[in-house]
Each structure stands twice: as structure tokens, then as C-alpha cells.
Amino acid sequence: MRSLQQQKQLELNLGPVAEMPPSYRFEEFIASHLSESPTGQIRLMESILERNNMKRAVKRVIKNKGAPGVDGMTVRKIKKYLKRHWSKIEQALLDGTYSPMPVKRKEISKPGGIRLLGIPTVLDRVIQQAVAQVLNQIWDHTFSEYSFGFRPNRSQHDAIRHYREYVRCGYRFVIDIDLSKFFDRVNHDRLMSRLATRIKDKRVLKLIRSFLTSGIMIGGLVEPSREGTPQGGPLSPLLSNIVLDELDKELESRGLCFVRYADDSVIFVRSERAGRRVMESVSRFIEKKLRLKINRQKSAVGRPWDRKYLGFCMTNSRKAPKIRIHWKTIKRFKERVREITARRRGRSISQVIRELNTFTRGWWNYYGITESYNRLRSLAHWIRRRLRAVIWKHWKNRRTRVRELLKRGVTRNYAVTTGCARKGPWRMSKVKWVNIALPDAYFSSLCLLCPWI
Nearest 10 degrees: CA dihedral of 348, 349, 351, 354? Predict the structure, then answer.
């Protein structure tokens, strides 16, 4: 159980993550945000189709870019399409006769397998975004304070900081619960019953169900979708939070400390024995009440410095644990750098560095909150060695290698010996005279970016 003193200490260390709306009664909150009919009943569909809300939805979909759906329409064409056809689309939505098109199946690779995405058409994405913007006003203020996924003014960094503070408060064991194919296994009937508790406009409920059951197009054939929320639509993140809010409320009622980002949940306890007990009871709740499946192989009770959460872990300091990048994240980083710096790609060194900088800049924008740099110190040296191997490969024959070494200040004797060596590029990238010819300053002059240095 979380003591009052520990809770106050956690709030003192972290401060408010985001300003939450005051705890209105639900009726007052709705009345202050949504349109009302002359009879006083809430007109949720009219609020969704309100001009400013639709303009924000179109702008957001265009900004997110994204691939076209089954109809082939790109985001650049959506404005012109809506100008020509909006009156018919709006009337169909108001009448409750709008029928979304099937989502396009897309497979993307992820560590340990593939992730199945469902890409709706651009028009359906706009409507989903408009629905999500209004439903967020209804639901977001009721979500748990310890839920951080897909919510305004909250991020993965906030989740990791809360993770660190729980470890600092003495919770030295974490229960890592992995939901197997969560987005593909959401029960439609349970989800709709949850939505119906707050949404009284039957047109909106019918529209959301039509998005859930629109089907999936695979190889030109449409397969029905009897469960799951297509991962790739703007509405799916909100629906996933609504489903898992039941789990959050259950954990809060038990007085457990936890952090959740989307379907990634961790619970904090003080002993391994308590961890096993809590894991069994929470697993029963998830499988029997929420009707979701737990991946038993990936779920475990472990130490915060061993388990990976959102790409991070903690140092094992008892007094002041710090955020650290997990070694598996470093491994994936190196795999990607190897792909970029592969010596058979036939790209100039400036092109390789430009692509490398794009990747490392984005990578560091996320992982830059790390507080422990011991796993990063050797990365810059390793990247420069990869680039030296690329350049050595570019020089190709012995004559070119000797000439380039001489040009860069290596004496003739060592230039000839090094240039005529029969070792491979990776082995030669460590040779002293190659390092003298291609020093760190040379790569800095080519604008190589290693932001953690």
C-alpha cells in the first residue's frame, strides 16, 4: 500500500505532470463543452461535426501525413475532396448512415516479430480524429493520474520519471505485465458498453462500432474484424485508454503503485514474494474481467535495473537511482548504425553521415533524458571506426590508399606499409596510421553528430 508520506514525497519530487481539469460532475463538464439541443439533450454528433473541430481534425491528419488507405487518396487531396463532398458526408453522419471503408493491412517489423497496422482511408482518419477530439474532452479528465499514453501534455518521459521516483521511494521490484497483441484482442461488446455509460447519442455509438467492424483488406479481399481496434487509426489510442482504464481503477483500488503507458504497465512492490502474488491476482483480473491475453513469456517480476520499460531501466543505486538506457536499446541502436554504415551500399561518406545524423538526432531526442552515460561513452568512438572502415573501402586499391595516407600526413614508409596491408576494412579502421589520417576532427568537419558527447 502507498503511504501518505510516500505519495507526498513522490508529488514533491515530480511536481504536477499536467494541469488537470477540476473534478466537475459529468453533466456540468459536458454542458460546458458540447452543443445542446433546444430540449436540453446533448447533441454529440453535432459537436463532432462543428466547423472548428473538423478544421482541427483535417489539419492534424495532414500534419501526421501517413500512407493512403484502400482508396489510394493521399492527405494532400483531402481538402479538395471535402470541399466537393462535405455536404453529403455530413448528412450521412447526422443520419447515422455513414459507412467507413475497410482498413488496409500493413506489416512493420519490430524486435521479436512484426506489428500489424490497420491504415484507414484519409477521410475515415479525419472523421476518427474529429470524434477523438470531442471524446477526449469527455474521458481524459477521468483517467488515472498514472496513465501517460496518448494523453495531452503527457509523454513517455513523464512515465519514466514516475518510474524512477517509485524506485527512489524503496520499491525495488517491478511487475512487468505484457499484453499479447492488445490492439488486436479488444472485445467490441465490452468496449461499446463502456462507451455507452457516457455517450448517449446513438449515432456516435453506431459510428464507432462501424469503425471497429469495418473489416481488413488483405490482398484485395476484405476479412471481417470481430475484435480489436485497428492500430493506426486516430481513434484507437483513446479507445485503448478507455479499455485499460478499468485496469488502472482496479490497481488504484488495491493501493498499488503503478505506471502505464498505452498497453505497457509496470507495478511496483517491495519484495519478490509480493510481486508474484500481485502478478497472479492482476493476471486473473486482466484475463477474466477484461478478456485480454497476457504474454507469460515476456511478463515477469524483476529488478528495475534488469527489466526494460519504454527502452529504459534504472541504475541499482539504493539512495539515488538514475535513468539509464537499457542494453537492449543500445544493441538495436548499433544494429541500425550498422545498416546505415554498411560498406556495400555504394554511398558517399557525406551521404552516410547525413543519414546517420538524421537517425542519431531523432534517437537522442527521445533517449536524451538518460542520467547515466556509461553505456554511451564508447558509442561515438565505435561510430567513427565504422566510418573509417567505409572510407577505407572507398579507397579500394593499394595505390589510392597510399596516396590518401600520404596526403593526410602519414610518412611514406608507414603509408606504403599500411596501404599495402591485406587486412579487411574493419580491421584496418583500428590501425594507428589510419586513425592519424582520419582523426576525430576530420569527422567533425563533415558535421558528424554525436549529441551525447
Answer: 180
DSSP secondary structure letter of residue 321: -
For 270-295, the DSSP string reads: SSHHHHHHHHHHHHHIIIIIS---B-
Q: Is residue 323's pLDDT more than 90?
A: yes
Confidence of residue 301 (pLDDT cuts 50, 70, 90): very high
Give me 252's grid cell.
488504484
**309-338: average pLDDT:** 95
Q: Which of 305, 313, 352, 353 is nearest to 329 (CA)?
A: 313
Residue type, 277: R
The yes-or-no verdict on residue 338 having pLDDT over 70 is yes
The answer to whether 433 touches 451, Cβ cutoff 8 Å, is no
Question: pTM, whole model, 2 decimals?
Answer: 0.85
- Rounded Cα distance between 199 and 205, Å, is 7
pLDDT of 181: 83
Reported as type and span, the H/E element at residue 326 is none
Cβ atoms of 447 and 353 within 8 Å: the answer is yes
Q: CB count, 10 Å around CB of 168?
A: 19
**Rounded Cα distance, 236 and 224, in Å:** 17
DSSP designation for 170: T
Instruction: Give the Å distances, CA to CA, from 233 to 9, 361, 434.
Output: 39, 27, 51
Residue 70 has pLDDT above 60, yes or no: yes
